Amino acid sequence: MTIIPSPVRRAVEALLAPLVSGLIKAGVNPNVLTTIGALVLVGSGVAYGVGWVNLGGFLLLLSGVMDMLDGRVARGGNIVSKFGAFYDSTLDRVGESFLFGGIAVYFVTGGVGEDWRTAALVTTLVALSAGLTVSYARARAEGLQMECKVGVAQRAERILGLGIPTLFFGAGPGGFLLLGVVAILAVLAVITVGQRIHHVHRITSSRRDRRTQAGIVKPAVADMSPKGKSK
Fold it and tell me: Which fold has domain 13-218?
């Protein structure tokens, strides 16, 4: 389950389709798009850190568009590679670290009142660590040959949930809008980590049960064979 409805996802993909086709025809390497997207995301973190919150929101949303483009260009152009997947995942984590690092800097340098700074910093660190764990859980599961795309707060939800409010409303009065959004993202990311752990546990338990049942059946079949006869 995800927060973004499937019709919205399909509508966005339809809007991006002409751009994806144009990039493929132009021979643009998806790794170039990945690099640009990561730089934009780093720029978003810097913008948040210096207090340009609206610009930070805009750059965050733009990085999300770039993130959607690189994979589609790779698949559509039939140039998917293991290095490309690794490179994309690694730069996403780097960019996300800069993003929440910038937000943390904003909070501790006066973005919220002094009484709220410690709470804001802790909340941001929880959002960052939980968000990174969400991504790691999927990567580790896929490394073990299991799909793990479940959860209420995947990357797209986190980008939209933070980018849209701050693009239009900035940090809000006293920085509390930004703090509230980060707190919600932190909670949802923690929930998503739990969902992915449960998902993988369910899959592995099911496989273990099947192996156990197979181990029980085989001896039973063997017991049915005639005994005491020479082969």
Answer: Four Helix Bundle (Hemerythrin (Met), subunit A) (1.20.120)
